[in-house]
Amino acid sequence: MKLAAAGLALATLLVATPAQAATPTPAPTPSACPPPVVIQPDPDAPTPPINSVALQQSIAGLPAADATAAIVRVGGSKGSWKGVTGVAGLTSRRKASAHVRFRAGSVTKMFTTAVVLQLVAEGRISLDDAVQDHLPGLLPDSYPKVQVGQLLNHTSGLPSPTLPETFDWVYRTRFKTWTPEEYVALAVRSPIEFPPGTRQHYLNINTFVAGLLIEKVTGRSYEHEVTSRILRPAGMRDSYLPGASPRIRGPHHQGYQVVPAGFQNAIAFGDGHVVDMTTTSVTSTWASGDLISTAADLEKFVKALFTGKLVPKAHLEPMFTVPDVKMHDKCGNQPAVYTSGMTRLVLPGGIVAYGKTGARYGYAAGVGATRDLSRTLVYSVNSTDAKASGQNQRTLRIALAAFS
Fold this sequence. Notes:
This protein has twelve helices and 13 strands. It is of the alpha+beta class and 404 residues long. A hairpin with a 5-residue loop joins β12 and β13 (376-383).
C-alpha cells in the first residue's frame, strides 16, 4: 500500500471531527466529491517491528510552531517504545515529562460506550431500546424513535447545538458551566438530521444522551459510574472526570492555542502568538470529552477493554463493528468509519486497528491498537491548533511511525 493511501486511512483516526454542527453549505457538484476510499484489509498482515527511528523523528524538534510537547507510548506483544519531548510550559521552559496528566478529549467516548455496553451485558438496557422510553421528554415528540445503539455508533440523526464557531467566543465563555440537559435542549431545537440508522454523523450530542441514559438507568452520576466501572477496575489511578472544575489536578503540561496578534492575554511564540488554554471548563463536552488521564493509564485501559476485562467479550463486538451506512456529509458517498465508541482503520500493509482521538484546545490525544494487542499506541500532543479542521500532520506522523 502506498503511503498516501495509508495517510487517507489514518486521517479518520487522527483528525478530530468537529463536534458542533457546521453551517450548511451548497451541495457540491459531482466532480467536487472524491470517490470513496476503500482499502482492503489483509487478515494475514504481520505487525511490524518497532521503528524507533521513525517514532523519534515524529516528535522531534519540539517546541515548534505546531506543538509545545509530545508524549508517545507504544506497546503490545511485538515490543515497546516510549518518548517525550518539548517543554511543560512556555514560561517555565521546564522539560516535558512522560508522567503528566492531560485532557483526553473525545477519547472519553470509548469510556461512555463501555459503560453502556456493561449495562447491556447486565440486562438493564438493550441496544434496540428506544431512547425515548428511558428518557421521556428529553427529545421532541416530533422525533422518530432513536435506538440506544444508534447513539453509540453515531447513526441517531440527532443534531448538534448551533453555537458560535469563532475561537473568540470559545475563549470568552471558557469558564461557562453547561448542564447536559441544557446542551441537549439547545441541540434538539433543530429538526432531526436524517432517519435514525440511515447515515452516520459523528457528533457529541450522541454521547451526551448516552451519559444521561447511564444516569437514568443506574440512578447515579455519570462520573461515579465511569470511575467505579472503568477507571478503578482498569487500575487507572491517575485518571479522573473533573466535573465543573476547570483545572487539571497534579503535574501536567500547559496547553496553548494559536491566536492573532493583539488577542487578549496572548503570548509571543516564535513568529506568532498563543493563548494559554490549560484552565478551561469541559462541561461543554461532558460525557463526550471531559476525561483527564495519562499515557500509562490509557494504555492500561485499551488492554483491559480489548481483552474483555471491562466489557464481556460477548457484548464487546459493537466497538469493533462499523454500521453499513454512508457518512452524513456534503457528498454522502463515503462509507461510515466509526464503530460504537471507536474508529476502524486499515493501516499500512493491510493491518486493521481500532482507536479514538480527542482534541481540546491545547491538547490532542489518541489511543489505537490492533485487536490482538500486538501493537498499541497512546499519544498526547500539546498542539497549538488542536481543533483545526485540517489534517494534524504531527499526530499523523506519530501513528504512521507506530504502525508501519
